[in-house]
Amino acid sequence: MSRDHDDGSPALSGRAQALARARHAGTLVAEPLAGSLRDIEEADALREAAEAALDWRPVGHKIGATSRAIQTRLGAAGPFHSALFAERTFASGAQLDLPEGALGIECEIAVKIEETPARPPETLDQAARLVASVHPAIELVGVRMPDGLRPDVRACIADFGLSVTFVFGTDVDPAALPDLAALPVTATVNGQQRASGTGAEVLGHPLNAIIYLSQALAREGRQLQGGSWVTTGTCVGIVPVRPGDLVTGWFGPLGTLEARFR
Fold first, then answer.
1. Cβ of 172: how many Cβ atoms within 10 Å?
2. Domain boundaries in the chain?
3. Which among 31, 86, 108, 133 could disulfide-bond with 171, CB atoms 3.0 to 4.6 Å apart, if both were Cys?
4. Strands lying side by side in the sheet with 131-142
5. Residue 3 has pLDDT above 80, yes or no
């Protein structure tokens, strides 16, 4: 699901290898990325080279910066996307490591794609027809950058789109759910509510994230593949967590899921 954009330059290859080693080991790179990338295209090229250097199995896509609050925090004009990997995908109830640079968790609405679309969707109805199942999800986000999170979207994109770990809950038939934009979402840590929101935090409607992703992939000469995961973006912002914390995401009729961090 990722393309190899490594143009052979030692700088790109070296940074990609360093990012891949840091993500695999749960550590930080030596040199910061903030301010070092010319444009979004260079950031995407570095991200894709780093994803290829991981040699992990891609299973879908993470979409980031789908809420106005996160866009403001990252200095992003709109969403971005990165790969999800089988090696960092877990079912609800998993016990997970907190690597260096972990920022916290996001409660998200995730979907499984039914089949590869003939063309990118343009409307919510068209996007809905691509969805095989809907899932409550938790994503652990973080940085591999030694200077922490900076409002430089190019650095965030290159750093695997801030993706660390993806946790999914039980599948639900989308026909059995009310409007996803109105879906209530609550993040609880050790039994204490920390944040809440609705599906509308995600570009006004979570299915708008599917439209964005499909069209972004098409511009890159790719397609949204049937059977792939898509995480649509946080409904509750970023909630900090520490080792020993038990996190629960409540999604109303979509159900609940949990993860414990160590």
1. 16
2. 57-261
3. 133
4. 80-85, 58-64, 229-234, 102-113, 131-142, 163-168, 89-91
5. no
58, 166 contact by CB (below 8 A): no
The amino acid present at 46, given as its one-letter code, is L
Instruction: Output the six-digit token pair for 152.
Output: 């430089």
In the chain, the amino acid numbered 7 is: D
pTM above 0.90, yes or no: yes
pLDDT digits (tens, 9 = 90+) for 147-192: 999 999 999 999 999 999 999 999 999 999 989 999 999 999 999 9
Distance in angstroms (rounded) separating the CA atoms of residues 74 and 50: 20
Q: Does domain 57-261 have CATH number 2.60.40.1260?
A: no
3-class secondary structure, 145: coil
